[in-house]
Amino acid sequence: DADVTQTPRNRITKTGKRIMLECSQTKGHDRMYWYRQDPGLGLRLIYYSFDVKDINKGEISDGYSVSRQAQAKFSLSLESAIPNQTALYFCATSDSDRVNQPQHFGDGTRLSIL
Amino acid sequence: AQKVTQAQTEISVVEKEDVTLDCVYETRDTTYYLFWYKQPPSGELVFLIRRNSFDEQNEISGRYSWNFQKSTSSFNFTITASQVVDSAVYFCALSDGGANSKLTFGKGITLSVRP
Prior knowledge:
The structure holds two protein chains of two kinds. By secondary structure, chain A is mainly β.
């Protein structure tokens, strides 16, 4: 089983719909992150969380919200999806006990908004 | 603000050629970390290497090698004797030395290795 699991892997939906992307991890890491990847733009940070009660905005948080339901779960929501939110979304985790260790990524969720 | 520039967007080589992927970074921090990730066609992100700002030793791992030069703010990645399986998008990333470990990614380089 993957250490960082993202669901769904693929999603096609319509403009205006509410979407939730889920991420769960078995690595025991306390830090979790959401990124989006667009062709030619690399990965950009949307939100990150260092603990269950800690939520921080990243570079491109507008139009998104997150919830850290437990140490192992971090979900990303699009309240009213729009076509320019079509992208590949990645969840990642890292361990605060070991500063600047590599982040571990899930396999991604490919989201298409029509 | 931190910035990572991968000026090469696409590189195409023939199998067995050597290829170097360039990465230039900007940061005001004295302590920072540099990373390379590989994204094969299947889409997942695979960690390749981490280097901290105090360790300028070059690193070699099999056919992969990394050249870190603080004087030019560069952290270049060389693949020797490239193989078709090396075809992927390669990302360079930068993290500051603080506790937040946020990554700033470059835009990525698409490497195609032709048989």
